[in-house]
Amino acid sequence: MILSTFERTIARRYLLPGRNEAFIALVAGISVGVVMLSVAMLVIVMSVMNGFRAELLEKITGLNGHAIVQAFGGRMDDWEDILARVRATPGVTRASPLIEQPLLATFNGRAEAIFARGNTAEDLARLREQVIAGNLATVQPGSGNVAIGSRLAQNLGARVGDTITIINPQGRSSPFGTVPRQIGYQITAIFEVGIYDYDQRYVVMPLSDAQTLLLIGDAVTMIELSVDNPDQVDRILAPLQNELAGRAIVSDWQTINSSLFEALQVERVAMGFALSFMVLVAAFNILSSLVMLVRAKTRDIAIMRTMGASRRSLLKIFVTTGFTVGAIGTVAGLVLGFVVLYFRQSIVSVIGAVTGQNLWDPQVRFLSTLPSRTDPVEIALIVLLALGLSFLATLYPSFKAASTDPVQVLRYE
């Protein structure tokens, strides 16, 4: 919609009211502010919800892979054959044997429930970036060295160089019954994945050491794997599921963490739907401010009509005025949203310090920090929603202004 010089001049005049029109300027400013806050809120909330899902998926699959293959009974003796079948499946990018067993760890009179995790050398190397103390390279087969999560180290009061005792209740049989197996391991690395439960429970060791601890010989408990498209993991692994039927069961990340990710998805949709009404409220503010402007400028509109201004010109003037208010608010909202997202962790810390409340408890939130990931498609939809509602809000008052009868208005002038 191209404006003539006359139309641009009048629209600019109405966007910047004079000194005697302070109330109209205030209402327009409030409209800009409401649009800005609604757009910023949508951007912030949707980005944080996307960040939750992305960070959880990245951290969970970074440690556990996208799926696991478990044998019935929890022990996989023919894992080499199953591993070969898994690696031959189209779409599978990585597969390796794994041992994971709930046990008990003690140190200086403190005891914690743990998950003893036995990994291959390649999988241990993937954990190197999460190490915050010690040296992961020292965790070698037969060395008696392990890496533990940061929260577990804190709960036990253990540091790098200390020796913890891991207790396997399914020990060796004796004339006096089953004797729990207790083995001491030296902590040579402390890691932090970023998911509270993992950092609090996991003790990572070489695969052969885990086999010795659990007395399972050359067997493993599962095979973990990664695929090239995590969102299509069920489709990719469907042939493998059929091939291993009766021998093992395939569980993907969507199934294992279904309740968590479904809750996040429901909350994300509900929050997006609820916050969209804020944009609708902002559009009503634009509507009300434009109605007030039209009523205040009725005499000016009548004069312009008598001077030859067409209904089309008046329609374009008021649509441009209202739409510009919405556009300014939308741009300002995007800027505000991105600024808040950039400083989100500092803002959470400041609010927590002022209120004296722990607003981000990792035990409740699963993640150590507030995540954020902006989706360009969602940002575009938010912008289109704000601009679309702003445009629709201008139509009624603009048509009302364009249909003004100058004879009726100027009859008694």
Q: Mind explaining what this structure looks like?
A:
The protein has about 425 residues and is α+β, with helices and mostly antiparallel strands. The chain folds into two domains: about 5-55 and about 260-410, no CATH class; about 75-245, no CATH class. It is built from 16 helices and ten strands. The protein has helices at about 5-15, 20-65, 80-85, 120-125, 150-155, 195-200, 205-215, 235-245, 255, 260-295, 300-305, 310-340, 345-355, 360-365, 375-400, 405-410; strands spanning about 65-70, 90-105, 110-120, 130-135, 145-150, 165-175, 175-190, 200-205, 220-225, 250.
Query: Helicity, in percent?
Result: 55-70%
Helix-and-strand structural type? alpha+beta
How many structural domains? Answer: 2
| DSSP strand content | 15-25%
The CA-CA distance between the termini, in Å, is 34 Å
The count of DSSP E runs of length 2 or more, i.e. the number of strands, is 10
List its traits.
about 425 residues; elongated; 16 helices; alpha+beta; 2 domains; six-stranded mixed β-barrel
List the helices and strands and how they pair.
Elements: H1 5-15, H2 22-64, E1 67-71, H3 79-87, E2 92-107, E3 110-119, H4 121-125, E4 131-134, E5 145-149, H5 150-156, E6 163-174, E7 177-191, H6 196-201, E8 202-206, H7 207-214, E9 222-227, H8 233-243, E10 248-252, H9 253-256, H10 258-296, H11 298-306, H12 311-342, H13 344-355, H14 362-365, H15 376-402, H16 406-410
Parallel strand pairs: 3-8, 5-7
Antiparallel strand pairs: 1-9, 1-10, 2-3, 2-6, 2-9, 4-7, 5-8, 6-7
Helix pairs in contact: 1-12, 2-10, 2-12, 2-15, 10-12, 10-15, 12-15
